[in-house]
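quick one
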Amino acid sequence: MLSIAEAERLIGQHLPCLPIESLPLAQCSGAVLRENIYSERDQPPFDRVVMDGIALDSAATREGMWRLRIQAVQAAGDPPLTLASRASCIEVMTGAVLPGGCDAVVPVEQISVADGEARLQEGSAVQPWQHVHRRGSDTQQGSLLLAAGTRLTAPEVAIAASAGAARIRVSHQPALAVISTGNELVEPGEALLPHQIRRSNVYGIIAALRCHGFQRVAEDHVRDDAQALRSRLRFHLDTHDVLILSGGVSAGRFDLVPRVLTELGARTIFHRVAQRPGRPLWFGIAPTGAAVFALPGNPVSTLVCLRRYVIPALFAAMGQGPVRPERIALAGKLEVTAELATFLPVRADVDDEGLAWAVPCPTNGSGDFVSLGGTEGFVELPPGPATLPRGFVTRLYRW
Ligand code: AMP
Ligand code: MG
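structure w/ magnesium ion:
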């Protein structure tokens, strides 16, 4: 049976790359950049005043001039003035261009003003370039600011704006279809009979997708009926980039999903992974190019497989560069009995030093999703049997 790493590699190898679109910058948070962004100008683009105060020629103080005539006021956004003489100064505000002939700023708190003069404390040392953010000291014009493949969080969006980009090329958001299967499932809000259960997986899946920034999510429900499955899946394969199914992939008589997908021409890339929970996971590619993740229906398996495989795959399809999984240390010794790799739900406890430790929150089997409430995510543990010591460092996947 396939290992987790092999399954992950196969997904990466077969995944379609999503198209590029140009979006206004304000709509780009969370998107994956698909072009390089270069610096429009030096950064800062001019010698920038960083304190409210006076700009002066520092040589004046070295010559013992402690009273300087205030020549003018220059605010941020004003074109730069030029100092008339060394005996003068110019009142400046944070963000102003350093006036010509000046090489330093003395903060307003360190001067007194009277009779049109700024008075410095006698003997105070004024260093050349103090309180000046020198032109080009952060980046040079034309230097690479953001590389294609970067996921855009707040700083990156601000950087793109600073480079003058009104629109940028990012990955198109994938059109996702989340589809539950099963005759036993009843929608929340509707009356249910004792032998039925709530259709909860779809809500968990959609919540996870939205939390990770995916907005184009359609949903559907199909009964365990080959004909119904065929027609609904055909429709979704034609209209979506990625299908995320829940249920119907195990070995039961009514687990029809892999068979129907195959009948629709989908190529099975793998079925079953050496992991617990989530062993029956199915992944394939349809003739339309749509990728299909058929997740086992047990609620813990569904959420674990979604987070472990589907969400990283969606970012990879959007062109995001490789991401190193987060790691965490186990808070206590742990006996691993399973011969398969295990995904174990955990709480992240923060100790007195502020370090997070993974505290296991085992579920009562893969059907017990109530135990997942309040967990941070899950850790990935190697196949056993083994005794993992306290402090054993392992991958953490946050929901
Ligand atoms: P299956 O993978 O279809 O064999 O389902 C495995 C178990 O998960 C069964 O007990 C199902 O009732 C349950 N299950 C399947 N789909 C859902 C769903 N959408 N919400 C909650 N439980 C589900
Ligand atoms: Mg089922």
